Amino acid sequence: MVHTALSLHVPSINATRLNETIHTTSVWGAAHRWGSLETETGMARLALSDDDAKVRRWFVEQTKALGCTVTVDQMGNTFAVRPGLRDGPPTAIGSHLDTQPSGGRYDGVLGVMAGLEALRTIVQENITTNYPIAVINWTNEEGARFPKSIVSSAVWAGAISLEDAWNLKEVIGDATQKSELQRIGFLGDTPCSYKGMPLGGHFELHIEQGPHLEASSLKVGVVKGAQAVRWYTVTVSGRECHTGSTPFFARSDAMLCAAKIIVASNAIAKAHSGLASTGIIHAFPGSTNTVPGKVVLSLDMRHPQNSALDALDAALHKEVDRIAQEDSERGCVVDWRLDTDAKATVFNEDCIRCVQDSADAVVGRENAREMTSGAGHDSCMTSLRCPTSMVFVPSKDGVSHNPVEYTSPEDCAIGAQVILGALLRFDELRAQKEH
């Protein structure tokens, strides 16, 4: 018998298979051992690296074996599409396989592997969906090697240009995203665009990357949207001088100025109920007995409300001007380069309802809650062009972007079950709306 999604037959995913898939594929990029067990390592699978290429090829092989047509676009985004009863843009489950340089085994990876597990389950159960379905691996979500996060889904959504993304250089080295896509064989011909590869909907399973679900003893986060995010590269220019023979009053100390900027960003973000962080800092010339003449640092600011992020940003700019002019000995010059400016995201009500209904069926309403994502995700970009929502599962101790990042096999399986149910519910809803 061939089941259709209209009957809302939601089969059970194979939790053991999902867990094994997560860990067997982690051999490509395993790093930063933190325990004695085979699985107790972190990950360093940077975008478009050799290890990224290996897991990409594996993904293509696996999805083709399940009857999917695989399309690779100009940014290396990989779409594995299984046909449905009707033609139309596919409903997708998507996330990313690249990691942070000292990341864990679940950030992004769980989302793609859960999509693959959903696909395996659908094929195994001989379910034919109303519309095509897809599993997507989005390129360079992390922005770790090439410093712009969610960059390839942003090109797909038309939020940034293909040329800008292609020309983005790695943090250390001269390779560009385009040259590395060419090198690993994932520079596709299909236009990277919602017009070239349209989607009917997009769902994403992700670890929470925060403490809220675990602290509340809840199993599922029904994600309504995501915070506004703004990234800057801040360059502080002073004057190099000898640390032993130059008194404080004669210095233009770029490092002192940068340090005070970082402290000020923390205080001002707290005052505005937002967040501010610096994750990269480079001092020049890099000598123990030379006061730095230039410091380049990253600045990441976030807030759930666009207007509040604007206010935080304006207050910090004002304070940085004061620090540079009045509180850095003889003073420094500060230049700001805006790298990312993502508005707060509001997800689609139909998709949110499909996630909520699926969570209710899997864990019960009392074990799920609505949430706003603190982090940016590829779903923030897809939401600009198609109905979108996300599912969160707990992160142990709220830790992510860290080798010890962990989500239990049980919670991974719950998330995969919820995302499969949401996919099938939305497929049914699309068919009902057509009538």
Structure, briefly:
With 435 residues, the protein is of the alpha/beta class. The protein has helices spanning 15-24, 50-65, 109-124, 151-157, 162-166, 177-184, 212-215, 254-271, 306-326, 349-363, 378-382, 409-434; strands at residues 3-4, 30-31, 42-43, 69-72, 78-82, 91-95, 127-128, 133-137, 201-207, 220-226, 228-237, 241-242, 275-277, 281-284, 290-291, 294-303, 333-342, 345-346, 368-373, 388-393.
Mean pLDDT: 96
Q: Specify the number of helices.
A: 12
Helix-strand category: alpha/beta
Largest sheet: 9 strands, mixed
Q: Approximately what portion of the residues adopt beta-strand conformation? A: 15-25%
Parts with pLDDT < 50 across at least 5 consecutive residues: 1-7
The helicity comes to 25-40%
Tell me, what's the shape?
Answer: elongated
User: End-to-end distance, in Å?
Assistant: 25 Å
Based on CA atoms alone, the radius of gyration comes out at: 23 Å
User: How many β-strands, per DSSP?
Assistant: 20
Describe this structure in words.
There is one protein chain. It is built from 12 helices and 20 strands. The chain has helices at residues 15-24, 50-65, 109-124, 151-157, 162-166, 177-184, 212-215, 254-271, 306-326, 349-363, 378-382, 409-434; strands at residues 3-4, 30-31, 42-43, 69-72, 78-82, 91-95, 127-128, 133-137, 201-207, 220-226, 228-237, 241-242, 275-277, 281-284, 290-291, 294-303, 333-342, 345-346, 368-373, 388-393. The strands form 5 sheets. Strands 4, 5, 6, 8, 9, 10, 18, 19 and 20 form a 9-stranded mixed β-sheet that branches. Strands 11, 13, 14, 16 and 17 form a 5-stranded antiparallel β-sheet that branches. A two-stranded parallel sheet has the order 1-7. Helix 1 crosses helix 3 (109-124), helix 3 (109-124) crosses helix 12 and helix 8 packs antiparallel against helix 9 (306-326). The protein is elongated and about 80 Å long. The two termini are 25 Å apart. The relative contact order is 0.18.
